[in-house]
Amino acid sequence: MPPPLRHLLPLLLAAAAASTAAAFVLEEATVESIHRAFATGELTSRGLVELYVRRIASLDPALHAVVEIDADGALAAADRADAARLELEGAALPPLHGIPVLIKDNIAAAGDGSGRLNATAGSLALVGSRPARDAGVVERLRCAGAVVLGTASLSEWCNFRGPRIPAGWSPRAGQGINPYVPSATPCASSSGSAIAAAANMVAVTIGTETDGSIMCPSSFNSVVGIKPTVGLTSRAGVIIISPRMDTIGPICRTVSDAVHVLEAMVGYDPRDAEATRTASRYIPKGGYGQFLNIDGLRGKRVGILRKDFFRFAPGSIQEKVFRDHFNTMRQLGAILVDNLEIPTMKVINDAVQSGERALMLAEFKLSLNSYLSELATSPVRSLSDIIDFNNKNPVEERMAEFGQSYLLQSEATNGIGPAEERAIAKLNKLCEEGLEKIMRANQLDAIVAPGASAHSLLAIGGYPAITVPAGYASNGVPFAICFGGLKGSEPMLIEIAYSFEQATKVRKPPILQHSVI
Which first-to-last residue range defines the signal peptide (predicted)? Predict the structure, then answer.
């Protein structure tokens, strides 16, 4: 079991000192630029792992984006990738061949025994647990050639410990820091994945979302996040809250990178059979890369959700930026249907009124206990055990201060009963009379909203979304534009998001105040 990152820093710095990639520019590197450097011999996968390890060691003590890294396992995998590249020179290699990836700390990575990472959801209660096998998405990433470098921090229990938990905080990693404006929120719960991608600690990270946990940190950290249709990516081997809403997706710096990673992750998994079988019918023949179309906005009908979404002060930077962005979209051939309203948004945004909270509480207990039962070894085997651990081990005062009310409420549930069935029926009705009705009535290809403001609208129905950097507020805090749609609309959303990104090219790396070695 790898020790926490802070104990590895001296070792990692020493291991990284001999990087061989002098001509390669690490900052803002993309999957494509990395592959070019591999092909020309400027860079090896081992050299890239060492560069990222070195950067993490320099930046993470201030940013708290990484929980653990598996240096030995990653270097061994990188060496195998380098050997395969030499042996198969000229042959087609997997799409993420030799590319280091950080996965969120609720995703199991058993590896091949050379090095195993904890998957703890930020909790001390799960330190020392060992998964019997990789999560389904990790298996697919490895098949695509990815090198699993380590785990990214998050809000403890995916922001489901209690309502007072600060965004991006966990007892395992501390408080995640926004690399653009340290006093600003990094947002929850895939905060570490977004921080790491934004600060160029790695090119590819993986997050999870129940309700906003990819969209929001992507927005606040000026990176691209794809929240896939629920079931498009497997949840097997992942600590989730709600099978109805949880999905696994990429967080990268460009739409192109995120799409290539998404393509590597999707598909049927017998361990998450029902959801992945249903969603597999949405996967297009030829994959998702074909939709990276620079002219992808042309002819698209995009609905602007104004009321309850665009709440910017008159004359603010955000108001001006979005006005300019909409003009750009029109110039690129998009048909914008403006001033749309979903009458039930106040109910949708209230997790208690909508029934979302009641369902999440019941589903979380069932999902967590199922995950724990499948671990090869674990110090806890149930949500009840975790609550007992927290009561007996207040390692940090903050743990007692923040409480664990959601955990306690979840433990008090008894599966999916009449109350939960009523919640499901209400959520289904909100979906039918909300997003689905407005999309069909206006013949929309997508809806557009600022930042993560549409997170609950998209969450309750398992709908997809892509967030793309849109600008920076007067205080320097990033904000995004979000494109969302009905289930299976990823091809349409990719065309729109890529065309928008290429026309605007808003993202800029943070100016880090910390030393970079």
Answer: 1-23
| H/E element, 196 | helix 191-198
Domains annotated on the chain, with CATH: 5-206+244-250 (3.90.1300.10), 352-425 (no CATH)
Q: Report how far residue 410's alpha carbon sits from residue 294's, in angstroms, rounded to the nearest whole number.
A: 46
Catalytic residues: 104, 189, 213
| Side-chain-side CA neighbours of residue 389 (13 Å) | 15
Taking the CB of residue 428, how many other CB atoms lie within 10 A of it?
15
What is the 3-class SS of 273-334, one letter each residue? Answer: HHHHHHHHCCCCCCCCHHHCCCCCCCCCEEEEECCCCCCCCCCCHHHHHHHHHHHHHHHCCC
Distance in angstroms (rounded) separating the CA atoms of residues 403 and 219: 28
* Coil vs helix vs strand at 100: strand
Nearest to 499 by CA among 306, 334, 321: 334
- Residue ranges of the alpha helices (H) in 374-415? 383-392, 397-402, 405-411
Would you write out the chain's pLDDT as a tens digit for each of its 517 residues? 555 554 455 445 444 444 444 477 999 999 999 999 999 999 999 999 999 999 999 999 999 999 999 999 999 999 999 999 999 987 889 999 999 999 999 999 998 654 579 999 999 999 999 999 999 999 999 999 999 999 999 999 999 999 988 999 999 999 999 999 999 999 989 999 999 999 999 999 999 999 999 999 999 999 999 999 999 999 999 999 999 999 999 999 999 999 999 999 999 999 999 999 999 999 999 999 999 999 999 999 999 999 999 999 899 999 999 999 999 999 999 999 999 999 999 999 999 999 999 999 999 999 999 999 999 999 999 999 999 999 888 765 566 677 899 999 999 999 999 999 999 999 999 999 999 999 999 999 999 999 999 999 999 999 999 999 999 999 999 999 999 999 999 999 999 999 999 999 999 999 996 554 4
> Which residue in 381, 385, 380 sits closest to 370, CA to CA?
381
Token pair 């149930």 is found at 382
Map tokens 């710096």 to a residue: 253
The set of residues, in sequence order, having a beta carbon less than 8 Å from that of 114 and lying 6+ positions away, is 72, 73, 76
Structure tokens at 282: 């949405």
Cis status, amide bond into 367, omega within 30 of 0: no
Q: Helix, strand, or coil here: 185?
A: coil
Kindly list the distances between the CA atom of residue 83 and the CA atoms of 15, 45, 86, 97, 170, in Å, as whole numbers in the listed order. 20, 10, 5, 11, 38
C-alpha closest to that of 383 among 410, 362, 403 = 410
Is residue 474 within a helix (H) or strand (E), and if so which, with residue range? none
